[in-house]
Amino acid sequence: MKKIGLTTTVPIEVLIAAGYTPIDLNNIFITSKEYTKYIDMAERDGFPKSMCAWIKGIYGACLQNNIKDIVGVMEGDCSNTKALIDVFKLKGINIHPFSFPHSHKKEDVKKEINKFMDIFQVELEEVEIIREKLNSLRQLAKEIDELTYKQNKVSGFENHLYQVSLSDANGDMSAFEADLKKALKDMRKRQPVVKKIRLGYIGVPPMTGDIYEFVEKFNAHFVYNEVQREFAFPRADIASNIYEQYYDYTYPYDMEYRIKELEKQIKERKLDAIIHYTQAFCYRSIDDIILKEKLNIPILNIEGDKLNTLDARTKLRLEAFLDMLLDLKESKE
């Protein structure tokens, strides 16, 4: 199957039905032991230092891994993606456009997905067959999520890893399904590990993956990963078709729609606080203003840049925040 690169989550059901293997360039970039070489490659080719490291990493991952086709999300993703797509075109890479309509109307979502199916010359029936297969994987990820926040048997990092990987099913649905089943078999047998502070992680998946292990040193753990969970489409099983599934996806649409789901999860998961991760030079940093105004819960905003580990300043801020939360919780008890 021919590889096709993704800059964010898109209807991979269409791509797989068309005979492509979707490859999430974000995952290639951040899991590489030499992730900085992707950033360096972009900067050598003229990308400014004052640009999000994810954009530069995606660019480098695409060229280094010889990806010749890219799905370019023109609406509903990072504002820098449009410029990135233009550079990809300059490099001779084939661009296949897709948009999450800002209107967030069902008829507009349906129109965009139909256009996407037309580009790849597949029919709805073919796409729904693939969706059904993917939904069996999503149900496994849903169980991992429930073992995280209901039974405390899964770490925040594991929760993050298996859900974020559903953006492309690790490029192999069958192999990834086997990995999920194997992981679940072990997770179900574990004894619960209960921490005092229940945290939610919101915002784009982190470059600093060590944040999950770090907070556990302070009697805290993440029981919710917002965007990673959305990548895993936890409500796909109640969507009657692909149109409803991608209409119900919170990440690319307006803040009001996203906040409704956040409020629901804060209550259901009994969260004590939220860590809001943003990337340096990203417009989504402004979301923090709205989130702190709308959500009735303590929120700490941290910002990542090029490092894939937490810096000393961020560790200090996290430690102080968690100490405060622990003191508050113990005083109430």
TrEMBL record:
Cofactor: [4Fe-4S] cluster
Keywords: Iron, Iron-sulfur, Metal-binding
One Gene Ontology term of the molecular function aspect: iron-sulfur cluster binding
Keyword Ion transport carried by entry: no
Pfam families: HGD-D
Family per record: Belongs to the FldB/FldC dehydratase alpha/beta subunit family.
Name of the featured protein: 2-hydroxyglutaryl-CoA dehydratase, D-component
Organism: Clostridium homopropionicum DSM 5847
Taxon lineage: Bacteria, Bacillati, Bacillota, Clostridia, Eubacteriales
